[in-house]
Amino acid sequence: MLDLANAIKQWGRELGFQAVGITDVDLGEHEQHLQSWLGRHFHGEMTYMADHGNKRSRPAELVPGTLRVISVRMDYLPADTDAVRILKDSSKAYISRYSLGRDYHKVIRKRLQQLASRIEEQVGQFGYRAFVDSAPVLEKAIAMKAGLGWIGKNTLLMNQKAGSWFFLGELFTDLPLPVDKSQETMHCGSCFACRDVCPTDAIVGPHQLDARRCISYLTIELKGAIPVEFRKAIGNRVFGCDDCQLICPWNKFAKSTAETDFLPRHQLDSTDLAGLFLWTEQEFLDRTAGSPIRRTGFEGWLRNLAVGLGNAPSSEKVIKALEARLDYPSELVREHVQWALSQHNKDGCRQTTDDVRG
Fold first, then answer.
1. Helices then strands (H, E): number in the chain?
2. Which residues bind cob(II)alamin per the record (predicted)?
3. Which listed site, 47, 145, 314, 315, has its alpha carbon 20 to 30 Å from 24?
4. Where does the pLDDT of residue 336 fall: very low under 50, low under 70, confident under 90, or very high at 90 and above?
5. Numbered residues of the known binding site
6. What is the pLDDT of residue 322?
7. Which residues sit in the known binding site for tRNA?
8. What are the tens digits of pLDDT across the range 162-206?
């Protein structure tokens, strides 16, 4: 089994994973943390986080017969995405770096299946199931136990040599493989840069994230109106947020991905808010095909962009784009458009392009 474990790690690297670790299924400590988080209602509308009983923290209940979990890491940060520059240019749309390319679920799941096939060639038929952020799995807790890093104060998995710009995936298996040493040491020290930089104060304590305040939640998971109290703070972030990663000192060690699937598509790393807001629904579907951005839906996409345009510098281009959606069929979109227009006229009245020309 030791030889097999070493072979699995080698095969994993050959398949494009930057790290592979193996752990058992005891997540008792992390189960308590999850229950405490849910008890404080930090999950907001993500009711799926409270579903499935204890299966999320008990892999052997989710997949009966599971003895070990093979945890994998795949880096995703494209080179030269100018993340900070785009974030500071309030006329541009900032899209979380993980979602600029192809949907990571498909990329990693395919590689995990290939890894399972290699194992099967070696040992014959065995029990396994692959997961990529698609089922009740405590992936960060599993990765920490497998030695892939520690959970930082921003609740993301951190690695001393790779920062946090990576995806995780898991292969549940009934093979009694030797386990790796857990990452017990936290290396955040006294640093609270992630908490201090968070635009909406979502990091309410070390390892404590109130998702209801998090921009990633507000722009992706939340299906209704974005609370007015957060709209100015959202700035130009129209899908997700990377602030706590951009500020983290450990990310100076992050390496650019070699995966072409994660490279930006359709210039989504540097496009004007106004241009994206005028996409038709068909253009949205065409240009986000195979992308995580599809998760928000076209209505949510317009909602988010309207907030971004409300925070953008006043210009004829911005006002015209907003006015083009004033009669949009969705009440949700219309309300956000009206709010955005009010931001370009301090008395709250609708501002026209003639006012901008002024």
1. 16, 10
2. 56, 133, 154, 157, 168, 216, 241-242
3. 47
4. very high
5. 56, 133, 154, 157, 168, 188, 191, 194, 198, 214, 216, 223, 241-242, 244, 248
6. 96
7. 223
8. 999 999 999 999 999 999 999 778 899 999 999 999 999 999 999
Average pLDDT, stretch 324-352? 83
Residues whose CB is less than 8 angstroms from the CB of residue 188 and which lie 6 or more positions away in sequence, other chains included: 150, 152, 153, 158, 206
- pLDDT of 217 strictly over 60: yes
State the chain's mean pLDDT as an integer: 94
* Distance between CA atoms of residues 224 and 109, nearest Å: 31
CA distance 166 to 111: 15
Do residues 159 and 232 both lie within one domain?
Answer: no
Residue 126 structural domain: 2-79+101-173
| Sign of the C-alpha dihedral computed for residues 29, 132, 268 and 80 taken in this order | positive
- Span 97-136, pLDDT tens digits: 999 999 999 999 999 999 999 999 999 999 999 999 989 9
Measured N-to-C along each axis, helices 316-323 and 297-311 cross at an angle, to the nearest 10 degrees, of: 150
Check: CB of residue 22 under 8 Å from CB of residue 146.
Answer: yes
Instruction: Flag whether 118 is in a domain.
Output: yes
The answer to whether 12 and 112 have CB atoms below 8 angstroms apart is no
- The answer to whether residue 228 scores a pLDDT higher than 50 is yes
Q: Which residues of 193-216 are buried (b: 16+ CB within 10 A; e: fewer)?
A: bbbeebbbebbeeeebbbbbbbbb
Q: Could you say which DSSP state residue 190 is in?
A: T
Q: What is the pLDDT of residue 236?
A: 98
> Between vectors from CA 233 to CA 266 and to CA 216, what angle results, nearest 5°?
55
DSSP annotation of 139 reads: H
- Tokens, residue 357: 């020309």
Question: What residues are labeled active site?
Answer: 133
Q: Which residues are annotated as a binding site for [4Fe-4S] cluster?
A: 188, 191, 194, 198, 214, 241, 244, 248
Reported as a single tens digit per residue, the pLDDT across 345-356 is 833 344 443 443
**Is residue 210 located within the same domain as residue 340?**
yes
Do strands 19-23 and 68-75 pair parallel, antiparallel, or not at all (unpaired)?
Answer: antiparallel
Q: Are residues 162 and 299 in the same domain?
A: no
